[in-house]
Cytochrome c biogenesis protein CcsA (Corchorus capsularis), 318 residues
Amino acid sequence: MIFSTLEHIFTHISFSVVSIVITVHFLTLLVDEVVGLDDSSEKGMVVNFFCITGLLVTRWIYLGHFPLSDLYESLIFLSWGFSLIHMVSYFKRRKYNLSSITAPSAIFTQGFATSGLLTKMQQSAILAPALQSQWLMMHVSMMVLGYAALLCGSLLSVALLVITFRKVITIIGKNNNQSFSFGEIFYMNERSNVLLNAYFLSSKNYYRYQLTQQLDHWSYRIISLGFIFLTIGILSGAVWANEAWGSYWNWDPKETWAFITWTIFAIYLHTRTNKNLEGVYSAIVASMGFLIIWICYFGVNLLGIGLHSYGSFTLTSN
């Protein structure tokens, strides 16, 4: 009873804190003159991190196993992963604020997890026989942390594309009023790099140029970290599958989409090694990866089939 009460307290506090953090971010976008709001949002994310940590530890003690046995627990852990990424970046280099990405991501995953749709999963249950293994913590935690990092990095790439294409469209609109296509945008990006750099480096747009460089830099670093987690998760899952089912790979829907996700981000990292493809082109690949991750993590669970069906999504019946 005590652990259940603590779990509810941590859940509501963390959800409320993240909601306030997002509200503060909107206020800072509208009113730049307000002093202390940005620092308050950073402290809010710190509080949220410790609340979700307390929630996971409480559930771990209460259930007697690491809380990663179903969709509800993995969503809470995913929200914790978003908060962890923010904490690392916050304490390493405070000037690079990732709250605009991590806070909405945390509230989305945590809000869905605590909604009425997953009420049955929130209740304690006996661990499925297939999950009663020491590989549970290793495999699932690495996979979910990999998803969290890859999602954050992909969202940074999406932001880079939005800023870049808006500016390219503005430049084209100023030069002529003719219609254009995305192919023409890519063509201009290849043939007019000098003009674009000169435009970005002008005093009026220097901040935007710095922002795009920071987005590209952080996207690459976070996706690289997520790719390492994903690789470890897939390899440990293969070992676990061999112990549980007698085969390292079964082309289960979850395994197949995990491999597709790994391939997409391997392509992204490969494009980063080519100077002509980094930036906009690599960001497009990462943006595609954002959709693939959600199909792998959540979309496959809607099917409720395959060897990973224990993590399927079931609506609560009234």
Notes: Residues 177-188 have pLDDT under 50 and may be disordered. The two ends are 25 Å apart (CA to CA).
